[in-house]
Amino acid sequence: MEALSEILDFNDASAEDDKNKAIYHNAIVQIQHSIYNGPALPRTLWPVFVSDDYLTLLKQQRPMALIILAHGCVLAKYAPYRWFVHNWSVHITSSIAKVIDPVLEPRMSWPLKEWGLPYEGIGDCTPVLSKA
Q: What does the pLDDT read at residue 9?
């Protein structure tokens, strides 16, 4: 998937320390594995398989961790429809888009487009809740 490859490349080129780059790399690879190596329903379990180190970075609201989470939320779109998972994923993606540094906004384009959220003027995005 091109969007995930771009995020991997962005991570590799980032100024993050090597430890964080490795943590982010592994989280992105877990998303890729969820997409390519399993039935649809387990895709929503992606967060269960990420490392505690990634969850720590996510708790710190590190920008790359948030961007990865937004990409992981897209997995719910391709799982059997469950209102609680779908709505959660849309709201999480929208919330991340509102707080992400403007320099990093292009990294949010794929998750936003997947959920039908506006990409231009990210700070104003409002969730569009529809059955996928």
A: 94
Q: With contact defined as beta carbons under 8 Å apart, do 112 and 122 qualify? A: yes
What does pTM read for this prediction?
A: 0.83
Determine the Cα–Cα distance for residues 97 and 91; give it in Å rounded to an integer.
10
Name the CA dihedral angle for 117, 106, 101, 35, rounded to a multiple of 10 degrees: 70
CB-count burial class (<10 Å; 0-12, 13-18, 19+) for 74: buried
Q: Which pLDDT band holds residue 24 (cuts at 50, 70, 90)?
A: very high
Angstrom distances, CA of residue 52 to CA of 49, 80, 103, 131:
9, 27, 27, 32
For the record, the structure tokens of 20 come out as: 């964080």
